[in-house]
Amino acid sequence: KVGWYNAVLQPAFHLPYPDDTLAFVVLSTPSMFDKALKPFVNKERLKIIRDPVDQCVSHHLSRVKEKFPDQRVDIMFDYELLPSRKPKFLAQTAAHVAGAAYYYQRKDVKLDPWGKKKIFGVCIHPKYGGWFAIRGLLLFPAIQVPFLEQPAPVDCVSTEEKRIELLEQFNFHWQDGRYRDIIEVKERYSEEQKAYFATPPAERFRLLGLSQETQ
């Protein structure tokens, strides 16, 4: 429910819907690369002008919207910004309140070792660890669900030591991706997918066989 999200944030970040409004947080799993992105690129090769992943997600969520012709469905993407340059929604907070993934933050560590350093939080999924992404939000403004019970996210990094290790790795060594394996995972990104996301965005077109002219 939108109210779960708004309840944990300052008013400046609230979503402008009644508290009982139904919302879905959309995640992409490791198999998205082969099952969705590559087929999308092959089919839409000449229409890809921005980031291929963003366009792929937009394409699939638009298709979901088409399945509900009699409903208003509002879509927010993780990459969208408001005119104020704030994100349209805080993806990690949304995932946490929906019970999809646990958002580990500095406040989850009792004996904080970082002093005045800025420490960013990170979501960990009980099945995929850090090998997933939060892609968007689907909102159904006409559907009110006062009866919906809030599921707690799975606290899969439950020891103080592991939480410190997770936040250290994410904040200071994120490039090597070790934080993604803070727990035992069921599935990871393929080597091809790792290489894709490790490549600067402007050079990713080449990896997918797209020319700069297409870009």
TrEMBL record:
<comment type="similarity">
    <text>Belongs to the MMACHC family.</text>
</comment>
<dbReference type="GO" id="GO:0009235">
    <property type="term" value="P:cobalamin metabolic process"/>
</dbReference>
<keyword id="KW-0521">NADP</keyword>
<keyword id="KW-0170">Cobalt</keyword>
<dbReference type="Pfam" id="PF16690">
    <property type="entry name" value="MMACHC"/>
</dbReference>
<dbReference type="GO" id="GO:0031419">
    <property type="term" value="F:cobalamin binding"/>
</dbReference>
<keyword id="KW-0963">Cytoplasm</keyword>
<keyword id="KW-0274">FAD</keyword>
<protein>
    <recommendedName>
        <fullName>Cyanocobalamin reductase / alkylcobalamin dealkylase</fullName>
        <ecNumber>1.16.1.6</ecNumber>
        <ecNumber>2.5.1.151</ecNumber>
    </recommendedName>
</protein>
<keyword id="KW-0285">Flavoprotein</keyword>
<keyword id="KW-0560">Oxidoreductase</keyword>
<dbReference type="InterPro" id="IPR032037">
    <property type="entry name" value="MMACHC"/>
</dbReference>
<dbReference type="GO" id="GO:0032451">
    <property type="term" value="F:demethylase activity"/>
</dbReference>
<dbReference type="GO" id="GO:0033787">
    <property type="term" value="F:cyanocobalamin reductase (cyanide-eliminating) (NADP+) activity"/>
</dbReference>
<dbReference type="GO" id="GO:0005737">
    <property type="term" value="C:cytoplasm"/>
</dbReference>
<keyword id="KW-0288">FMN</keyword>
<dbReference type="GO" id="GO:0071949">
    <property type="term" value="F:FAD binding"/>
</dbReference>
<keyword id="KW-0846">Cobalamin</keyword>
